[in-house]
Amino acid sequence: PVERQKLLFKGKALKEDGDLAPLTAGATLMLMGSADALPLAPAPQVRFVEDLSRAEAKKAGADATPVGLKNLGNTCYLNSVAQMLHSIPELNGALQRYVPNEPLMRTQSPNAPPHMVTAAAKHLFTSLDGATDAVLPALFVHTFRTVLPEFARTTEQGSPMQHDADEAYNGMISLLAQTLSELPREEGQARGEPTPASNLVAQLLRGTLEVRSKCKEPGAEEEPERVATESFTKLMCNITEQINFMHDGLLAGLDEDREIFSSTLKRDALYRKTARISELPPYLCVHFVRFCWKKREGVRAKILRPVKFPLVLDATPYCTDALKAQLQPHRDALREERNRRIAAQKQQLEAKLAATDAHSASTSPATSTATATSTATATSTAPAPAATAEAAPMDVEAPAPAPTRYVAPSFLAPQHNKTGTYELSAIVAHQGRSAEGGHYLAWVKYGLDTWYKFDDDDVTRCHDEDILKLVGGGDWPIAYLLLYRSVDRLE
């Protein structure tokens, strides 16, 4: 500011009323002064949405678009599987609670490799939750290839090979199952009490099949039917020329012929295997068997046949009769709740339409003319009636039926799925006609009708109608792994 400035000539300050005669042309003057104090930064620092982490944006209520994973050279299969597993909140939470065993990972113990992958997965999922830009999964990819060297193979030119996303999914959940054994417990449950499963992966993804096998060959008619139980982490959807829907493909995978040693015939014989689910998992993974081996040509081929799949899956056709009986009361309760809500919406709509009709009738020309003729004298002397305070709207558009929204149950209950109902929550799809190449993408559901497509680091928003296009039939991405989430009540 001017009041804090001085003008000096030969070391002396010049004053306004001083003698300026000594000043000549070309004289050197010096201006000195002191600045005001700098303004203080605002107490609440302004931060823009673009600068917030995903977790901070969620807390602030801003729309936080998820981030993708960069491709490190044919790693799309691993990126897609990671995005699908990251969509499971219980698994994500268990990884956040996981404490890496650093001394163990520095040893040659056979238990070290699974812990290395779990620690890398924790780092990756934490980065996905906190980043605002695409994440570079270098540590995760390197660790995964080190522990599972079959995924580290390269081509003759030295570049990384493309691999099967299903094989990567199997390897990933197998490693996580060996480390994530600390299960969340219900309130009041002591640490020493038994938990529903031996590890978190088993608790979330593993179901049980009741398998019945009956010999089909002559001479073994009297042989009793064999009954056994098997665990599974995914169901196979077999695809043949007769399969057009996932329902038929699942039944084809559950009911098939297999060769088993017959104690009656003393040799391997053909048995008819019939499998049904006796315990449903909270998350049901369905594998579309899109790749097959052609014996005559000696090559691996891809099946492009379109197979439709549902957004909401009813799993009861694949369950045992005993499990169906357990599910029925909860299914009836869910159906009654849905019908009650539909009836309430219908009543609300009828009330609006009735109010509209009444308002239209009271203001129609015929009614107005009749009223004016019969009460002409009265209306000339009486005050005008007051306008209706709450007039019904003139045009009422029938609202679209509210979409059914499901919410996940508590998975700590002995029965993981109480209704046999699942909603589609994530997809890994394969694009391309070749079984040895192509490209993998992932779709993850983030809302009622909101999905995000993860094409490595390119993330775009889409909706249910876009998901239903992944049925197959050409160069468009084809659903390969489908993850269904258990639901047991309406929101």
Please state roughly what percent of the residues sit in beta strands, choosing from under 5%, 5-15%, 15-25%, 25-35%, 35-45% or over 45%.
15-25%
Shape: elongated
Q: Structural class given helices, strands, pairing? A: alpha+beta
Instruction: Give the termini distance in whole angstroms.
Output: 64 Å
Counting DSSP E segments of at least 2 residues, the number of strands comes to: 19
| Number of continuous helical runs | 13
Q: Which residues sit in consecutive blocks of at least 5 with pLDDT less than 50? A: 182-197, 367-415
Whole-angstrom Rg: 35 Å
Helix percent reads 25-40%
Question: How does the major sheet shape up?
Answer: 8 strands, mixed
Average pLDDT number: 81
Task: Please give a quick description of this structure.
This protein is an alpha+beta fold and 491 residues long.
Walk me through the structure.
The chain has 491 residues and is of the alpha+beta class. 31% of the residues lie in helices and 22% in strands. The chain has 13 helices and 19 strands. The chain has helices at residues 54-60, 76-86, 89-97, 102-105, 112-130, 138-147, 165-177, 200-205, 246-254, 321-362, 365-374, 376-381, 464-467; strands at residues 5-9, 12-13, 30-33, 207-215, 226-232, 235-237, 255-262, 267-279, 283-288, 291-294, 299-302, 312-314, 406-407, 421-431, 439-445, 451-455, 458-462, 478-487, 489-490.
